[in-house]
Write a structure and sequence with these properties.
Chain A contains 12 helices and 14 strands. By secondary structure, chain A is α/β, with parallel strands linked by helices. Chain A is globular. Chain B is built from 11 helices and 7 strands. Classes of the chains: A alpha/beta, B alpha/beta.
Chain lengths: 335, 328
């Protein structure tokens, strides 16, 4: 984990820039790392993450692809299996559906079904989430799907600092990593060291310390929860915010420890609540020693069981918002 | 065709031709042995046998250099044997034993031997095609000089992944040869009902690459055509499609009653047995005698018998190994 030192150059970087910097720094050091994806060349990617990288690395390593998610995901698997370390960008995480065979049946299982031979060191980077008015086919949060598959690592950075360090760890990892970025976080900034650093996969971060209620939140929801925490503080409710950062592997220990301290747990994610990762975290706590410490039933906030709609008011209503979080915390405290 | 009037690839010596003959028997006996064990219930799961398709494993792979790679299909035992994968460890894998290629965790559809460039069979129809393209991309990016021979079937040619992958390989000019074993049926679906072009190789035109049809019972024709395609790919001239018209003598998998085809059709194909044809050619060329041919056939049979002994003597995996190798 990075610790701030006197000589370290700190500056504000957006999440998007942090992702780009992590890739660029890694590519300068390791010839095996390259990026492939649709419109990632001159266009700079659907959200501009790879902008400028073509100039530095050229078209061999910033590899613009046809619109062929099935082929490019498999090409990433094949390249990884034979010694490269590809970073595959999918324009929207919804398009993972078209790449699913290669992720689920190939990348995740190759090593196991080959009896421990071979490895698939690839990173699939893709923006997820709603809030941009892109409607049902460009707004989903599908991380629970990939979290369900043994053999995959699933990362959901919520800040620029985390994105840079987690992406380095993901590229260095010898397993297939699904790296969910969030469209609404791309433009947010935080202090990011210029030098390379790695954040271990499977280590949660306590984004805010508190004593009354634990909120486990992922991705963009971390920001909403922190906003809610500020409001709640005014009313004397002290919230602890735990960001797992990676949902596979999941840092159970940090969550259990926090729940034992506060005795109250809310889990908040943008993905549809039904079948979402929140259910997994709730069950994990129910099965752990933290269960005896609970002073109230566990609460979950997640997306409504609807496709993400287009109309802005409807879109907002489909996912948990700050007032929903405040209300849920108050219910926990009142219980 | 006679060998004396055919120009063979330079690395194909008379000894290599004899080895190829024996190898085809090795492939046939392997699958026939597996068939017997499945029928007896001695092996569980399922399997897909390539009896009758031996020439399209042996011929194209004989065209390769050792550094070249293959990707295979669910009907892949023959491809593995032709690439040099050890039959003992293959049989042990089918028995689910610890000395199997996958330590008993993969079974028939996942045999791989990465060290010799066998990137594995695949249980997903067309699943290996994009992986082959990725492996070819590595060859290009690292300037490794190897070519990938990508096996797929007539059924796979109707999967989206096939079209996307061939197009990708074409636009990137990758060193991969797509080799279609058109054995006439995708499970029960006749290629005539499922595809509205006469030849799957005709689809190559859609990607701006060459496509060629070969006789899947003629091991020498497949050797030569593949050699040309592979060396072209190696020179940087990009991919191509080769389609072998062939036939699986047995059903799709162990539970197939073969209601979708006639015994007459099966017998017609069996009368064109590629192993027998190759033997006759080698004898006519003076490279083989009936006695020597019989001897080689018996050697192959014995090697497969021995592989069964090896498999039976190999230990069961420990239950603890369940959790090994999920992550690297």
């Amino acid at each position: 984990m990075y610790t701030r030192k006197g000589e370290t150059e700190m500056r504000e970087l957006t999440y998007l820039e942090a992702v780009r910097e992590a890739m660029s720094q890694e590519m300068r050091q390791n010839e095996d790392v390259f990026v492939l994806g649709e419109d990632i060349g001159l266009y700079g990617g659907a959200f501009g993450v790879t902008r400028g990288m073509l100039d530095e690395f050229g078209p061999e390593r910033i590899r613009n692809t046809p619109i062929s998610e099935a082929a490019i995901s498999g090409a990433a698997v094949g390249a990884a299996l034979t010694g490269m370390r590809p970073i595959l960008e999918l324009q929207f995480s919804d398009f993972i559906t078209i790449a699913m065979d290669n992720i689920v049946n190939q990348a995740a299982k190759t090593r196991y079904m080959f009896g421990g031979k071979g490895k698939v060191p690839m990173v699939l980077r893709t923006p997820a989430g709603s809030g941009t008015g892109a409607a049902a086919q460009h707004s989903q949060s599908l991380e629970a799907w990939t979290a369900h598959i043994p053999g995959l690592i699933v990362v959901q950075p919520s800040t620029a600092y985390d994105a840079k360090g987690l992406l380095k760890a993901a590229i260095d990892n010898d397993n297939p990593v699904i790296f969910y970025e969030h469209k609404l976080v791309y433009k947010t900034s935080s202090e990011v060291p210029e030098e390379q650093y790695s954040i271990p996969l499977g280590v949660a971060d306590i984004k805010r310390e508190g004593k009354d209620v634990t909120i486990v939140a992922t991705s963009y929801m971390v920001h909403k929860v922190l906003e809610a925490a500020k409001e709640l503080e005014k009313e004397g409710i002290d919230v602890e915010v735990v960001d797992p950062r990676t949902i596979v592997p999941l840092d159970k220990e940090t969550i259990i420890k926090s729940v034992k301290k506060t005795g109250r747990l809310l889990i908040a994610h943008e993905a549809v609540k039904r079948g979402g990762i929140g259910g997994e975290i709730a069950s994990m706590i129910a099965e752990s020693e933290a269960f005896d410490y609970l002073d109230a039933p566990i609460k979950r906030l997640g997306g409504k069981e609807v496709p993400i709609p287009y109309n802005p008011n409807l879109e907002k209503a489909a996912t948990p918002q700050v007032p929903d979080i405040i209300e849920a915390v108050k219910e926990l405290v009142r219980y | 065709m006679t060998l004396t009037t055919t120009k063979l690839p330079p690395h194909i010596t008379n000894e290599k031709l004899i080895d190829m003959y024996k190898e085809m028997w090795l492939i046939r006996y392997f699958d026939e042995k597996v068939d017997q064990f499945f029928a007896k219930g001695a092996i569980h799961g399922t399997t897909h046998l390539a009896v009758g398709q031996e020439p399209s494993a042996t011929g194209p792979i004989a065209a390769l250099q050792p550094k070249d790679k293959i990707t295979s299909t669910h009907r892949g035992h023959g491809h593995s044997i032709a690439k040099g994968t050890d039959v003992n460890r293959m049989m042990a894998e089918l028995f689910g034993k610890v000395d199997g290629y996958c330590k008993g965790k993969g079974g028939s559809m996942h045999i791989a031997d990465l060290e010799i460039g066998n990137l594995g069979a695949n249980g997903i129809v067309a699943g290996g095609i994009s992986i082959a393209v990725g492996a070819a991309l590595t060859s290009k990016m690292k300037n490794s000089g190897y070519v990938v021979l990508c096996y797929f079937g007539d059924g796979a040619s109707n999967e989206g992944a096939f079209h996307e992958s061939v197009n990708l390989a074409s636009v990137w000019g990758l060193p991969v040869v797509f080799f279609c074993e058109n054995n006439q049926y995708g499970m029960s679906g006749s290629v005539k009902d499922m595809t509205n072009v006469e030849n799957i190789a005709d689809r190559a035109a859609a990607y701006g690459i060459p496509g060629k049809v070969v006789d899947g019972t003629d091991v020498i024709e497949m050797l030569n055509v593949t050699y040309e395609a592979v060396e072209n790919a190696r020179k940087g001239n990009g991919p191509s499609i080769i389609e072998a018209k062939t036939y699986r003598w047995k059903g799709h998998s162990k539970s197939d009653a073969k209601l979708y085809r006639t015994r007459e059709e099966e017998n017609e194909w069996k009368s064109r047995d590629g192993i027998k044809k190759f033997k006759e050619l080698l004898i006519a060329e003076g490279l083989l005698t009936e006695e020597k041919a019989k001897e080689l056939q018996q050697e192959a049979k014995k090697e497969i018998e021995d592989s069964v002994t090896f498999a039976q003597n190999s230990p069961e995996p420990t239950i603890d190994s369940l959790f090994e190798d999920v992550y690297a």
